[in-house]
Amino acid sequence: xxxxxxxDPSAPAAALAPGLYIVASPIGNLADLSARAANVLRRxxxxxxxxxxxxxxxxxxxxxxxxxxxxxxxxERARVDALxxxxxxxxxxxxxxxxxxxxxxxGFLLVRAARAAGVPVTAVPGPCAAIAALxxxxxxxxxxxxxxxxxxRAAARDAAIAALVAIPGTLIFHETAPRLAATLDALAxxxxxxxxxxxxxxxxxxxxVVEGRLTELAARYRAHPPRGEIVLLVGSGEGxxxxxxxxDAALSRALxxxxxxxxxxxxAAAFGLARGPLYARALALSGAAxxxxxxx
Length: 296
Ligand code: SAM
Hints:
By secondary structure, the chain is an alpha/beta fold. It has helices at 35-43, 52-62, 76-86, 108-116, 129-137, 154-162, 180-191, 214-223, 244-255, 260-271, 275-288, and strands spanning 19-23, 46-49, 68-70, 91-94, 121-124, 144-149, 170-176, 195-200, 208-213, 229-234.
């Protein structure tokens, strides 16, 4: 058993040792605040946070009256040095508006600088929307790739998706409700019609987890635009039956955005096949489609 049963993590300690504490907070249900997190929030000298109004609610739930310092994405770079200097003799807790700091949230520069300065950095782990979604998705969780938010602009988004085509594990994205349907369409077009899961409003009243093929989900959410916060998960496509028709379909999709050489390489990686025969097929398909793109 890896839990340290000799320490009661919720018991008030005489003082919190100086350093940086990375404290996870609930993603929608305040009851998910851990006893240890509440304890650290009550004892830290300073709470660095994104939105002080959001964190004020968290601190009330924790019974904390400790001072807050705004540390959002716009202020991170400017405030790192002064904050690390304070950690020499103060305990600084970093929280996000929700979930685990650093995961699509500020904190990376602070942790890196604290570690470089030899400041102890302590994890107070807890909720994380991406991991919560993965844990209930029914998609393989042994290997996964967290891709965060995709770029907003379509061209950059498509390029970012194309770079994920050969990842041999479940893909996890943060996504906003207004963009969900367009993102599902783009994923289907570039990665193929893989199995996927939309996890919405986790731990909240309107929690909903919907699974289906990417094209089915795109149609569903285009017809019924969703609200709330969303984690989108996409199966790796591995283990799917790779018939000639499947391979041709994947090559044809890839050829819409790639030259035959790259299309063959990405489809070969996705299906675990040799590139050579697929390159010949990609050339034939691009010729049949009237395309005259440079291969390579
Ligand atoms: N650091 C946070 C974490 O560990 O969960 C994530 C912060 S990121 C700025 C916010 C995104 O997380 C949302 O846009 C959504 O994609 C996802 N998210 C946060 N809370 C969620 C929830 N209750 N249900 C589903 N997704 C959620």
